[in-house]
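ok so I'm stuck.
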Amino acid sequence: MSSDQKLDLEFAYTTYQDSCRDLYSPYYYCRRPLGHDGVHAAGFGTGRLRWEHQPNHAPHMLS
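replied:
not stuck anymore, here's the structure
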């Protein structure tokens, strides 16, 4: 299973309340489960973004 397929499953089974929500931009926030290992991720297919936490963005800015 590719990392993209694993992320698709994580996104499908993670509710908004249980998602990380680290902010990439006002339009993209991490959809991985709270407490995940590795990079943050949002979006699907060719539009998927992955990023390290940005120190100037507090986590849960969209809560």
